[in-house]
Amino acid sequence: MTPSPSTHGSTSPASRYLTVGLYLLLLLLIVSTTILGSVPPVDRDALTHHLFVPKLYLQHGGIYEIPEIPFSYYPMNLDLLYMIPLYFGNDIMPKYIHYLFALLTAWLIFRYLKANIGYLYALVGSLFFLSIPVIVKLSITVYVDLGVVFFTTAALLFLLQWADDGFRYRHLILAGLCCGLAAGTKYNALVAIVVLTLFVPIIYQRRAVQSARSNTRALYFGFLFLAATIVSFSPWLVRNYLWTGNPIYPLHNTLIQNIVSAPDETGTSEESIELSDTLKRVTKKGSNAFISRKILYNEPWWQTLLLPIRFFFEGQDDDPRYFDGKLNPFLLLLPLIAIILKPTDTRQRFHLYIFLSFSFLYFFFTFFQEAMRIRYIVPVVPPLIILSMYGLKAISTRLFPITLSFPKNLFWSKAVILTLVCTALLYNSLYLREQFSAVNPFPYIFQKISREDYITTYRPEFPVIQHANETLSSDTKVLCIFLGNRGYYMNFKPLFEQPYSSTSVLTGFINNFGKTENIISYLKQKGITHIIMNDNLTAGWYNQLNKEHQKLVYPLFKNVANPMKSLNGYSYIQIETQF
């Protein structure tokens, strides 16, 4: 049986050349991303969490509770995979493990589009996804977001397959297991659990034959999906419950602790008070995010209203004002075309509505947070990619239908589609080129600079940390002031200090012990013998203290002019020498 063009692409010479061209671009993109990822890790979250905690687990010989690192309570499906190369002393390989989940997601997109739209659209969709700026950025960093993207996309596609194949249990359970694995990778996927659990009864009621529709059966499938989700998510729920009494610690900790605790003797329902306060905070959270942007960035009201659209047009890496990431405007424009020119096929139209609804709900559930980051909504990218390909297909079949009356429509449809695809990929390629300037991998790859010099370029505190590693034992406690919790390269025991925080060591001393105890003896009681600090930020904090508080902490800094090591605005000091 001869394959149909819609499935395997046209056999015309032009289509064959286009297919080869797309494969070459895909290969070039994969090679480029691999090169960008071949440098030592320097990104913040990798050093504070995704590599640091697995490193501590390896040193300890297994998973254990680390109360001083809140990130250690987060789900860690991918972080556990990173332990394998870390065990062999390789901290670059975790980037490729993370990137593997981008490639697997591209395969899911390709597989779906090939079966439903066509081979060339499948290739374009995969290439478009892998070249989206935020996907490229995540592909070259040791984060976990791409794992969430893969498992969430797999869960969504399994649900659609469940509906298309007569509601077989296997597909529903696989969808639930994937959704649980997503949540076991990062807490952000809790949004996917809520959205997809709500989708299950709706999908059943919409796609089942009239005689089989039942509210009870629809709810049963919803509970079955949720049960499968909890099963695959349960290892982290159980761990946190045993450690803290809150299965999703540190999320909603006050509320959950009050739910499980006994009521007070007066009979006043403290739980109801806390629940009320929690609900107020949740409902105000979105508005607070908008208010904070007004205060921080002085944005006019119309820019605030356009925030959801600006996500697609104004993203910039490492800039919270512009969402700390970058998407592509065509992820908004092409799905709009798909919505306006909906497929005539009932099944495809239903898929379109599911992709659209998931993207909308996930986006806005995540959007109303205090921290607006593009990577927090990155699970909507695959559905938007698929919708974009539906949009391109609609241009060909709906906007420029090929008939005997309009034979030139074939030319115009190809011209419009080619222009849109080239423009979208050009937008992505410009970002890829910028990454080569930002990451600058070639001097390291060709050994023109050492590993230490490369890390120092991006993390100027590294030489000071290295000196401390050479002079301290692994059990020495060091107070790290304004070092941003970046502990991966530290072989001693860091105690990260943010003095502006009400829970910090120095603030606690000033408020509670300053009048009765010396700062040096106070730190020695905590086992702290050394300090590494960001000079400028520490000086700024010290100078804003009143004179009485400055006198209390002055003994800690009186010999700062004679540090054990000082370089690039960071100093390493031994406390014992400062009497």
Describe the overall structure.
This protein has helices spanning 5-8, 13-36, 44-50, 52-60, 77-87, 93-116, 119-131, 133-139, 145-164, 169-183, 190-207, 215-244, 253-260, 270-297, 301-305, 307-313, 330-340, 346-367, 381-399, 409-439, 442-445, 451-458, 462-471, 505-513, 519-525, 535-543, 547-557; strands spanning 477-481, 493-497, 528-534, 565-567, 570-574. The N and C termini lie far apart (89 Å). Strand 4 (565-567) and strand 5 form a beta hairpin. The chain is built from 27 helices and five strands. A five-stranded mixed sheet has the order 2-1-3-5-4. The protein has 579 residues and is mainly α. The model is unreliable at 1-9 and 262-286 (pLDDT under 50). Helix 6 (93-116) packs antiparallel against helix 7 (119-131), helix 7 packs parallel to helix 20 and helix 9 (145-164) packs antiparallel against helix 10 (169-183).
Morphology call: globular
Strand order of the largest sheet: 2-1-3-5-4
Q: Tell me the radius of gyration.
A: 27 Å
Distance separating the two termini: 89 Å
Report the sheet-strand fraction.
under 5%
Number of helices: 27
| Helix/strand/pairing category | mainly alpha
The stretches of 5 or more residues where confidence is low (pLDDT under 50) are: 1-9, 262-286
What is the overall pLDDT average?
87
- What fraction, in percent, of the residue positions are helical? 55-70%
How many distinct beta strands?
5
Report on the biggest sheet: 5 strands, mixed
